[in-house]
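Observation: inputs received (chain + 4'-deoxy-4'-aminopyridoxal-5'-phosphate).
Thought: call the complex predictor directly.
Action: predict_structure
Action Input:
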Amino acid sequence: LTSKLPNVGTTIFTVMTALAAEKKAVNLGQGFPDFDCDPKLVQAVTQAMQSGLNQYPPMAGVPALRETIATKIQALYAYEYSPDTEITITAGATQAILTAILAVVHAGDEVIVLEPCYDSYVPNIELAGGIAVRVPLTPGTFRPDFARIAAAITPQTRAIIVNSPHNPSGTVWTAAEMQQLEALLKPTQTLLISDEVYEHMVFDGQQHQSASSFPGLAERAFVVSSFGKTFHVTGWKVGYVAAPAALSQEFRKVHQFNVFTVNTPVQHALADYMRDPAPYLGLSDFYQAKRDLFRAGLAQTRLKLLPCEGTYFQSVDISEVSALGEADFCKWLTTEVGVAAIPTSAFYGNGFDQHVVRFCFAKKTETLELALEKLQQL
Ligand code: PMP
Ligand code: GLN
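Observation:
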């Protein structure tokens, strides 16, 4: 058998979570909360199940949920999507991104990714028969380098994938950067896949800049989000994609033969729960408090803090602590110190190692304190 993905192994997240469990380490590796979601959300799912909402929903998703999402996007980003034709509920952001790529990328098309990037993008592009064109974010700051992006655009460029707030670096694109992207894409046919799964985790008063707020981007964008991140339910695997009707139509052609539909009772529960915007509007403050606690503790260690403007990830430079490469350092840290982290090199095609590792701070205070106690011994 010839592998369709010869360079792909088991994802770093699975590997590090397994090692953390084996070594009984504090798991700050894979990004997921170690606390539960709002009990109201569980009640809403139970209620939906008990009311018999247990069969296939409409292919594009439960209408009430699509309407709630459209209302949210209009309120926050001032763009009006039709819930009927422009919003589709997906099995998490992972399926949304794969489906968008399969829907628009033809064999031989180029798709630009900005490295470091989330590990599913490049294999997704390759599964579609496309060619991933890797453009580095600026080393050190992880900000977009528009000269390099411009140089990578060719007549074969079908799409670019942008992720802000950014995993792993925590960088949040400014309005000026989004406008620069808008100007750059304007004379081209390039589509945008905008991975906005951390849209509600942006700190220090900064605002998330959704592609849907920029007309020249919205008209060519698949905007992707994830309820797993926003409502502390990563295991539920529900997200959505918002895109203009022509793009959504192509998306749905693939979606219907990929998953067809997504979990019915969870969609009803999310529609109910999301009518109150307080939980997602309060998420940035909730995570900023965790970030601040974690950063204050890390400042007492020999790990060097990098900026964290959004997401639930904090990166650190390990150069002063160890000469090991990132991957070996993470294994050593998990095994010997008892704290799991993720090497940033896992987000690069060539394993580029800049002595930076990522911690997830979506954890209870006591978990963060326990991890800090261990890290302070470094
Ligand atoms: N994109 C990014 C940048 C992510 O960090 C994640 C979560 N790991 C995903 C997509 C996938 O989200 P989901 O769990 O909803 O599939
Ligand atoms: N998005 C999560 C992270 O970056 C993990 C998701 C996964 O395990 N695939 O840690």
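Thought: report the result.
Final Answer: The pocket of glutamine (ligand 2) is lined by residues 11, 13, 30-31, 167 (CB under 6 Å). The first helix runs from residue 12 to 23.
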